[in-house]
Design a protein that fits this description.
mainly alpha, two-stranded antiparallel ribbon, 2 strands, disordered N terminus
Length: 203
């Protein structure tokens, strides 16, 4: 299967192989190998258990894999935050003043849910683990609509910058594209919140 990035260009076979080596190297089955590398004081090679097959990787690739475990943790945090936002907007839809505002909040909730699914899928592809704790997350209580909308706007604005920084810092073109798409969509969310404030709170 061909992977496309940078305007649809197809990377060469070596680039594709390196991308998938990094993905496969981070499967949960190999987590002990990362610890062994740290404890070994930097041995030139270390074992990676991948689906029951033990292989070895050069130290340079091991360092890359270790660095990218931080990306896995970041993806997991993105799933959790997007699910929190989805729950929050669903709660706002239930108490919104008017059908139009309620419909906007439900669209935002569904959009955040799609973000969470996207990041959860990427997390699974990289680690082999499923993480999607939507069912066990508590539904937030809305006490003050005006302050809640201010908080929503702040969170969306911060998410734009967070995803843009993540896109710039990763060497994985698949992750970079996902983060850029999320940043663009979060910017649209912030605009929706601003327009809701203009129409709901300002007489």
């Amino acid at each position: 299967m061909e992977l496309t990035h940078n305007g649809g260009q197809v990377p060469d076979k070596d680039a594709e192989r390196r991308i998938w080596e990094r993905v496969m190297a981070q499967k949960q089955a190999g987590s002990d190998a990362y610890k062994n590398l740290i404890n070994s004081g930097g041995d030139s090679r270390y074992a990676v258990q991948n689906g029951g097959v033990v292989t070895e990787m050069p130290q340079a690739q091991a360092a890359v894999a270790l660095q990218e475990t931080g990306e896995d943790a970041f993806l997991k945090s993105c799933v959790a935050q997007e699910l929190e936002d989805a729950k929050l907007y669903a709660a706002l839809a239930r108490c919104a003043p008017g059908r139009r505002a309620s419909a906007v909040f439900m669209r935002l909730s569904n959009s955040e849910l799609e973000h969470a699914k996207r990041f959860s899928t990427l997390f699974f592809l990289r680690t082999g683990e499923f993480y999607f704790p939507y069912a066990v997350m508590q539904t937030p209580r809305i006490s003050m609509l005006n302050e809640t909308l201010r908080e929503c706007y702040r969170r969306e604005s911060e998410d734009v910058l967070r995803y843009l920084r993540a896109a710039e810092s990763t060497a994985d073109p698949v992750l970079a594209e996902a983060f850029r798409e999320a940043a663009s969509e979060e910017l649209g969310h912030a605009k929706c919140i601003r327009e809701l404030i203009e129409n709901i709170l300002i007489p």
